[in-house]
Amino acid sequence: MSEILLEVKNLRTYFKSGRDKVYAVDGVNFTVEKGEVFGLIGESGCGKSATCRSIIGLIHPPAKIESGEVIYKGRDIAGLSGREWEEIRGKEIGMIFQEPMDTLNPVMKIKDQICDAISDAMTDEEKTRKAAEILRTVGIASPEKRMEAFPHEYSGGMRQRAMIAIALAAKPSLLLADEPTTALDVTIQTQIIKLLSDLKKAMGMSMILVTHDLGVAAQTCDRVAVMYAGNIMETADIYTIFDSPSHPYTCGLMMSLPKTGQKNKKLTPIKGNPPNLSDKPKGCPFSPRCDFSDSLCVKGLPEMAEISTGHFSRCLRPEVLSGKAGVTGCDSR
Amino acid sequence: MENTGRLLNFFRNCNQEFIVSSLILLLIITVAIFPAWFTRYDPYEQNMEALMQPPSAGHFFGTDNFGRDCYSRVIYGTRVDLVIGVLATAVPFLTGVFIGLVSGYFGGKIDAVMMRILDITTAFPFTVLIILIVSILGTGMRNLYIAIWLVGWREYAKLSRSEVLVEKNAEYVQAAKVLGFSNARILFRHIMPNVVQSSVVYGITDIMLCMLTAAGMSFMGLGVEVPTPEWGAIISEGRPFMAYAWWISTFPGIVLMLTGITINVFGSSVSRMMKQMHGR
Amino acid sequence: MQQVKYIFNRILQMFPVLIVISFIVFGSMRLIPGDPAVKMLGDKATEETLAALRAKMGLDKPFLVQYLYYLKQTAKLDFGNSIYLKQSVLSLFLEKSVVTVSLTVLTAFFSVLISFPLGFYAGIHGDGRFGRLVSSLSLIFTSVPIFWLGLLMLMLLALRFPVFPVGGWGTSFMEHLHSLILPSFVGSLSTMTLIIRNIQASVVNVLKKDYVDFAYSKGLSARKVTSGYIMRNVLVSTVTLLSIRITGLLGGSVVIESVFALPGIGSLLLTGVLSRDYTLVQGLVFLFGVIVLVINLLTDISYSFLDPRVTLK
Chains C vs B: touching, with 3+ CB pairs under 8 Å? Predict the structure, then answer.
């Protein structure tokens, strides 16, 4: 096993709605190893973004991190002060967002937005040269000219590249990518995914990729965690997850995904709707939508159970799925 | 059935601000209609034996340089000011909304001409335009009305036009067109109820703005004729004596301000309720 | 270069608007019943001078010819002589504009000076006690009759406690400044609350934007994020409001100058109206229109500097 870069322990983040606390992240645990791409998968509103933002400390009132630890390189960074964050953000942990148009400052030149992120120790000239270099790495041609432009003068794909360039300008060891391809056309999606993978390898960084798109996860991630209603339901390496999913929710996600080579097969959507977080079901949050649930499931939240090495599932009866081999387990429904 | 539902919905959305401000507004309107209920003095009656007396139990707001009771002048002024506010708002509201509806709905040349007129009139500050018109027509209340009517429609036209531009592409409008309804019917029966709200909300605040404008004009001698108990005019009357009779100018100003605040709060609470009822 | 061309084009575009404005001003003055020559020279004018002016203005000629004569005079910056004050309208305007311009600038300065920090504070710290205080204050200041508040201030700070002069303009620079403080403060109140509310709303809006979080995620200090990312975006939305308000302030100067007995353009206009000095009113209203046009132009230019998304055409 290689070195652990980030460990999230029992993270709970809520936002206040009226007098109630609504837990977007409800006791999340996972680790990210050095050089690994870790995927956080789930439907929108399951708490993946909130998890990401909690890691980098960008949770604003009325939302708040209630408890838990975020251990980065052996140091708990949850609850750092603003000053201390300046040393971590950008240089150690960077983040990219979903919608590049909203993420780039509309009234600032791309060049200045990159230079902002580069350490102050350099002269302006060095910064400019560095900025051009970074833009070239993310695949923007003739960067010396293009970086004098404003975000609105870029195309969607270029904005995404520029955003990646800015986030990577200070060479972080960990990149949080929050749905980095969702707002893009499919063809550009593939390019950006490839770019991110290449950059990750070249710079030797780790990455947490938040996505609702299993296809994107399959292309990029080494390990994934499937989130549902603020909890991680299943975590395993990418092959295991696809070969032998051991949580009914993971199965449900796969069933609703079209696959090549399987003709005349109906896609089965998961019945029902994702739960309202302010009115979460008792016990296993997935139980109301689960085909296999019984009275035991609503008693309390099931613990994570190790199914095989490194493969954990928060299900009382994973054997109903994994008893049969592979994806067919899902098909038995 | 639907109406009871609406009424219920209305009361459910009532907020504290709405209740308090509408109660005060009701009181102000009562004072305007029946001023005699609230004072025993005639606002015009001069009393040479009681010149410029400070506020007392007999004269709440004191007396002025003619010995008139300042309190009863303020009370009787309520009607004058309220009527000014409502009349000066109602006409521009109707014409402005009409112009905005028509020019937004039909677009094309009508719209282009209307927008040019708007552009040109906005080249003058509101007050300057009013003064120009008053100077052409001569001073006096009637001419002040005309001046405000000629200038005040701009905001309503802008507001309703911009909403019509959005609304005219809505499905119910397309449906009405397919059904062969006439333009007038579509515009006034179907579109108008949906776009008039923002103008109504603005209109409520505009009552206050018009009262302030008219009071300011009277203060400068461009509004009501001299003995009329209008708040701005009363403030102006007290001006030469402010060094030793502060009460003449002070009280009408306070009342004008409180009325303005009430109307403002009423307007914003109505707008909030409208938003809630439409779930926006 | 592009900007210079843009400004040049905009100035060119101003001319047709100016012509329309002049037409409105001229036409509306002709709506007044009576002989324009008598109105312009006053009741005491002799028959000869009246006849001379009629011939000069071509009053026997059609309306359009008269208008063209007026337009020609206006183009030469000749707005005629004030009947009441017996002085050229332009020189009166230029003389009095010092007061009004100083008043407007100081008023805008007060509003901006006070409203920017307060608006930012209210926006960043949310709808707490301070936010509520700001909204109640703005409620009061939008409903208060400015002329009355001015009188009240005079009563208090000039008569009871003689800190400021009761009115007038003084003779030295320090006296000018001294006499402007109270009027510009009173005049700035309503604008101030408007700007505070606008900035507050705009800050709240900008803070929700991903680019603020992205800026933080780069490791920038709070100060840098505030100045480079939040403030610049807030400014863009405030400049337009400020220009609309400056136009309003110019109009409001009539009232303020009247209350504080300041000899500015507003007082001059009021004198013109009350003494039925039509030449004066006609000239001043036209010049007001010109000023507003220039302010709008300046706004658009500054807008294009602040917001790169605004393309100059």
Answer: yes
